[in-house]
Amino acid sequence: MIDEGIDNYRESAAFTESEKVALEYSELMQFAPERIDAAFYERLRMHYTDAEIIELGAFIGFNVGYHTFFRTLDFYPMYSPDGRLVSQNESRRIYGRKPVSHLQGALARAQDGAGGEDSAAEEG
To answer: Considering the entire predicted model, what is its pTM?
Structure first.
């Protein structure tokens, strides 16, 4: 579901319309906050109360902020796609220079341990 939400939420049948607009809100908050205007808030209000929109926005803002902060520290996810707790070096090998979707090879590298630093870095 996470990969579907990242890579294909607009066309996916796995999400409701309210979930899709929430995912779009998250995407806009990170990449194009200037596009969140009165018309977009009206779209959100079709699915959420004002209190829910505020809570959702605060949660998204917090997550975008801490992920941005982690990038400044060159911090990688603590868990592999298959759920194992891993070191930063192992995580870097699995995810590459820039963490990628599980669908883009990270799960296979976590499960087979193949590839080493160079092949993981090629994807980032």
So the answer is: 0.65
